[in-house]
Amino acid sequence: MRHTLTIDGRALSYLDFGGPGRPLLALHGGLSEGGAYTGLAAALGDRWRVIAPDQRGHGDSDRAPHYRTEGYVADAVALLDHLGLDAPVVVLGFSLGGVNAYHLAAEHPDRVAALIDVDAAVEFPLHDDGPAVPADFRFLTEMRYTAATREELLQAAGPIGSQFVAQALRPLPDGDGWRLPFHPEDAIASATGVQGDHWDAWLASTCPAVLVHGTRSAVLPQATADAMVARRPGTSYIPVEGDHYIPFTAPDAFHAAVGKFLADL
Prior knowledge:
single chain; alpha/beta; Rossmann fold; 8-stranded mixed β-sheet; 10 helices; 13 strands
């Protein structure tokens, strides 16, 4: 069921799949939304209560003043407070959501019982002249946020259209057109804001953790993934045959990997 939390006058929308199970806070990646975890919630059944926010600037959540990691983390804490989840919860995050998840665990260890990092790296190259739009996100500079028809917007979205956002497009409030589930400017801000070294945050938490890694990921090289597991005590490793986008491109294997870690808890 979809709900809305207001933070400083800004709407944060979230999906609470309910059920009697333990809470699992699931943070989506960039260019996505909480609905990306609908399949995971179904796969986990009543054993886990999946709570999946549309992070700031995504899905049905309002745009935010900035897209730095501390803002994403503050929103997650506000959501946990709003839900009255004072006891530590399991936190899962994919890509951008994974970075936010391990920062949440580092900065609020009393709120996180276990951590599931889904192909989220700890190193994002920073250019000599400061943050720049990563090559993989430069297509966003040409992307349209709205269009008169759904088909026109999908065509303008290019290769990510059919793969990631086809089911997430929103009609405009006045009914005169469609919009993406994210604003391209916000996606660029998130991509540039995460650049740099996040090793300190990854190593700061001590809760049980797992790295679910796409073996052909272009975002998280095998050597870095191995180092993340080796350097952080209590971290297990589950490889999934696939690319960086395993929640979308290898959903069954992704669900099985998450289910295995949760069962072992």
